[in-house]
Design a protein that fits this description.
The protein is an all-beta fold. It folds into three domains: about 170 residues, no CATH class; about 140 residues, Immunoglobulin-like, CATH 2.60.40; about 80 residues. Helices cover about 0% and strands about 50% of the residues. The protein has no helices and 33 strands. The strands form seven sheets. Strands 3, 4, 5, 6, 7, 8, 9, 10 and 11 form a nine-stranded antiparallel sheet that branches. A seven-stranded antiparallel sheet has the order 22-2-1-33-25-31-29, with no helix packed on it. Strands 21, 23, 24, 28, 30 and 32 form a six-stranded antiparallel sheet that branches. Strand 26 and strand 27 form a beta hairpin. The N and C termini lie close together (about 5 Å). This is Beta-xylosidase.
């Protein structure tokens, strides 16, 4: 099941920044302090630039100063990371004596990946520049692109070749290449495995029956075409009651299981011949009627344990952030309202609690991007719980989202957990004074 809570945040630059959670009347009373990723390091590297032939200028061997930044320094395998390549000092200059007007320069380039993942990222910038006098150095410019994380581990990013295209009177290109590639590392991304949460599920046609009765078991979100074993379960052990079926092209199946063992307390389904909690669903509660005759003068007593649901509640729906000063900016911090997760399903499936943020909208058209919001998650497990929760990685939340907390699949899962996070909104120095609001949505699966 999926539980969602929406949180609305308002920030005051010089006043206050508040986050309000909707859907349920939950009060998010804390601030947003996320662990911000390490600052990208500007680097210098030797560059060979070739002015357009029409200029009559010889090649230029100079030094480029640049830096690489990312929107998520702690992604998971499969995530898409946005890369920004900023050239703060180009090795080339306007190759003509003619002054270039504003918005005629279009930069493109490459970012080199190394370490756990190799390759290049193509980046491009908008046609945006201030007026450039004849023969004057090109001003700073930025280019953006993205790549999909394919391997876990440390992935390094280095500035690569770039080209400066001008569109005024004639179309001209000034390509610049790294003389001794790769250039120094400017940024490092630490990617985690990102194993997806098991979403397999089963549903029983009945929750009890006489010994030998057949129960219909339907399943969803299994691997299409896989062989599914459906089996009775007595606590953590399987009974001899088993059936096999093949999942269809959508990962669904329907099976009829004869259940005879009176010790059966539930039914599970898993891919393959042996149980693996990462590829299983259940147990779904099922009991076999005890038809053993009661001796004269005796009474048969029967008790049962029924499975519950996966749910979450919040300690509030408003978070007040610390103010920052106009002209200085910095981190507006606070704490997420405590979220309590109760996993009373009694199965083998873990859970994941994630969050996504919207941009923070302020006075007029002022906006602080969702990528400026970071968190440092925390999670505590209540004593006696079968599962142990783990906090998500510190870093940006953004519109793509990030994990707040979760618990893995296991032979037996469940328990009660509390999740929190320090929050931080990185506010640019000269953001307009006033209140800024955004929405933080939590999703439990």
């Amino acid at each position: 099941m999926i539980a969602e809570a929406r949180r609305r945040s308002t920030s005051g630059l010089g006043r206050r920044l508040t986050a309000v959670a909707g859907v349920t009347s939950l009060a998010l009373g804390g601030a947003m302090v996320l662990a911000t990723p390490a600052q990208a390091a500007p680097v210098d590297f030797a560059t060979h630039c070739v002015p357009p032939p029409i200029s009559g200028l010889p090649p230029i061997d100079g030094t480029t100063n640049a830096r690489i930044t990312v929107d998520n320094a702690a992604p998971k395998v499969g995530d898409t990371v946005k890369v920004t390549y900023t050239v703060t000092k180009a090795a080339a200059a306007n190759p003509t004596d003619i002054a270039l007007p504003a918005d005629v320069v279009t930069p493109t380039g490459k970012v080199t990946l190394g370490g756990a993942q190799t390759g290049t990222v193509t980046v491009a910038g908008p046609k945006s520049n201030p007026p450039i006098p004849g023969k004057a150095p090109f001003p700073a410019f930025s280019m953006t692109g993205s790549f999909k994380v394919g391997s876990a581990g440390a992935i390094t990013l280095s500035p690569g070749d770039y080209n400066i295209h001008t569109s005024y009177i004639v179309e001209l290109d000034t390509p610049c290449t790294v003389i001794s590639p790769p250039a120094p590392v400017s940024e490092t991304v630490n990617a985690s495995d990102g194993t997806p949460v098991n979403q397999r599920s089963i549903l029983l046609g009945a929750t009890e029956g006489a010994p030998g009765a057949h129960v219909t078991v339907t399943g969803a979100k299994f691997t299409p075409g896989s062989t599914i074993t459906v089996a009775g379960r007595a606590g953590s052990a399987e009974t001899a009651d088993k059936a096999t079926v093949t999942a269809d092209a959508l990962g669904a199946f329907a099976a009829s299981l004869k259940v005879s063992d009176k010790a059966t307390t539930g039914i599970v389904a898993y891919e393959g011949a042996s149980y693996d909690s990462a590829k299983a669903a259940g147990p779904a509660p099922y009991s076999v009627e005890d038809d053993t005759p009661v001796p004269p003068g005796s009474q048969k007593l029967t008790a049962s344990v029924k499975s519950g649901t996966l749910s979450m509640t919040q300690a509030g729906d408003t978070v007040t952030m610390t103010p920052v000063n106009f002209g200085e900016g910095g981190s507006s911090t606070g704490a997420l309202r405590t979220v309590t997760v109760k996993d009373f399903r009694g199965g083998a499936t873990g859970w994941s609690l994630t969050g996504k943020a919207t941009d923070f909208k302020g006075p007029g058209a002022a906006v602080i991007g969702a990528d400026k919001l970071s968190w440092k998650p925390k999670c505590t497990t209540k004593a006696g719980s079968p599962s142990t929760c783990a906090a998500g990685s510190p870093g940006p939340v953004g519109t793509a989202g990030a994990t707040l907390a979760g618990a893995p699949n296991a032979a037996l899962t469940g328990g009660e957990f509390t999740a929190d996070a320090d929050l931080s909104l990185d506010i640019p120095a000269f953001s307009a004074s006033g209140s800024y609001s955004g929405v933080l949505t939590l999703t439990l699966t």
